[in-house]
Each structure stands twice: as C-alpha cells, then as structure tokens.
C-alpha cells in the first residue's frame, strides 16, 4: 500500500505531535485508510483462522498480543510447550525479559509513546485513542464478523 500525499502528511503530523494532530479534530487516517486496513486484516487474519486449523490441525496455534501483554509468562510457556521445547521457568523468564517492551524500546516504560519507533507504545487497544467514530464504523463494517468471532466485538452495532 502506497501512502497518498494526504496520508504521508497526517503520518508526519502524528510523528511530530500526536496531541497536536488530535487537537485539530481531524482523524489520524485518510478516509480510505481504515477501510483498506480492515479489508486486509479481515482477509489475512480470517484466512489464517480458517486455514491454520484445517491445514495443520494440532500443529497450529494462535498468539494474541493482548494475551502476551496480560500474561506474558503463561503465554511464553504455552508457546514453548507447543513448540516442544523446554518450558523451564528460568527460560520462560529469560524469553519474556528479552522481548519486553522496555528492552526493545531501549528503556521506555510501556505506555510511553514514541511515534517514530516500531515499538510505539507497547499497549493493546490504543487504536481507540486514534480512530474517529467514522473510522470505527468503517472498520466494523468491513471486518465486523471476524471481530465478533475473535471476541473483539459483541455485535455489529455501532
């Protein structure tokens, strides 16, 4: 996906100052961006959720970012077990600490934002702070069924 000049300008404005962009009252995204993102997410994630178990059976598992944040040790232990490797507590802790937001972001605390970093903020659900009501409506219109199926939404109402 190539960004339009409008999308590039909004992205740059966000990198400079997320608060300043929010104060303009404009959304962070150009009109077509949430629709395209929802279509892509629905296609890719929906296909993986369908094809993964069908193709790989018990050799398929899913990882949710929210679960990794909420229960990192338990999730890493589950994943190591799934891979058939050692689930020793010390190894699990080592994996968790090496992949922590604080380490990967070079010392920032989770929630401390750097809009220019791949490791932007380290929290789940921050999209709620950036989507306008229209962005939310569009995303749910395009990917609502999968959002419900995965437990992110309860119904198609907006």
Class by alpha and beta content: mainly alpha
**Unreliable stretches covering 5 or more consecutive residues:** none
Which whole number gives the mean pLDDT? 89
The helicity comes to 55-70%
Major sheet description: none
SS element count, helices: 8
Q: Got a strand count? A: 0
Strand content: under 5%
Oligomer designation: single chain
First-last Cα distance = 27 Å
How would you describe what is shown here?
By secondary structure, the chain is mostly helical. The chain contains 8 helices and no strands. α3 runs parallel beside α8 and α5 crosses α6. The mean pLDDT is 89.
List the SSEs and their pairings.
Elements: H1 5-16, H2 18-23, H3 32-56, H4 65-70, H5 72-83, H6 89-98, H7 101-104, H8 133-149
Helix pairs in contact: 3-8, 5-6
């Amino acid at each position: 996906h190539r960004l339009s000049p409008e999308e590039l300008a909004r992205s740059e404005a966000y990198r400079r100052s997320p608060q300043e962009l929010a104060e303009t009252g404009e959304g962070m995204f150009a009109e077509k961006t949430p629709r395209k993102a929802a279509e892509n997410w629905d296609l890719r994630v929906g296909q993986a959720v369908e094809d993964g178990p069908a193709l790989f059976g018990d050799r398929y598992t899913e990882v949710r970012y929210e679960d990794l944040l909420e229960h990192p040790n338990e999730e890493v232990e589950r994943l190591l077990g799934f891979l058939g490797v050692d689930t020793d507590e010390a190894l699990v802790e080592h994996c968790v600490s090496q992949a922590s937001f604080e380490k990967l972001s070079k010392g920032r605390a989770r929630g401390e934002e750097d809009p220019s970093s791949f490791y932007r903020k380290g929290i789940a659900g921050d999209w709620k702070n950036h989507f306008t009501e229209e962005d939310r409506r569009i995303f749910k219109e395009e990917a609502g069924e999968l959002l419900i199926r995965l437990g992110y939404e309860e119904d198609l109402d907006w």
